[in-house]
Amino acid sequence: MRTMVEIGLLIFVGSAGAGCASLPLPQDQVEHYEASVARARQMGAFRLQADQGHRGALGMSQSKEHLLLADDEMAVARDMAEHGDTRSVLLLGRAQSDVDLAIALACEQATRQRSSTPADRQPDRRPPTLALCQEWRSR
């Protein structure tokens, strides 16, 4: 009987130790996330001011809120991966979705601002955000 208790204890300790092992996040997904965040920065999504009537819950632009949320989700995903939690990949996917949504919201805001600009102000020149949005949509 004593050996059964010892075996059970060894199995319990072994499985607890395995739960703390580090689990790497898929490198291609991490690189895609980081490239998307870089694109959002390039588009100016972090610097956008909230439009009247298009303000997020925290009072800032919706695109900036989703980018901040994505950063938080990615930090938690990395922490979860360090502790061997397989759900970290799911949280990485949520972070990617929030970055994609932030980019789409930034494009929408740029389009709204462009349509509210008088036509006599450089009609042939597109703001850089709109040019990047069109490039992003075509991929």
Would you write up a description of this structure?
The protein has helices at residues 2-19, 27-43, 62-82, 88-115, 128-138. The chain is an all-alpha fold and 139 residues long. It has a single domain (24-116, 125-138), classed as Substrate Binding Domain Of Dnak, Chain:A, Domain 2 (Up-down Bundle).
User: Largest beta sheet, briefly?
Assistant: none
Structure class: mainly alpha
What Rg, in angstroms, do the CA atoms define? 22 Å
Helix content: 55-70%
Number of helices: 5
Q: According to CATH, what is the class? A: Mainly Alpha
Low-pLDDT regions: 122-126
Total domain count: 1
- Which sequence of SSEs, written as H and E, runs from N to C? HHHHH
Instruction: Tell me the strand percentage band.
Output: under 5%
Query: Which term fits the overall shape?
Result: elongated
**What does the average pLDDT come to?**
77
CATH architecture: Up-down Bundle
CATH structural fold name:
Substrate Binding Domain Of Dnak, Chain:A, Domain 2
Distance between the termini: 65 Å
Number of strands: 0
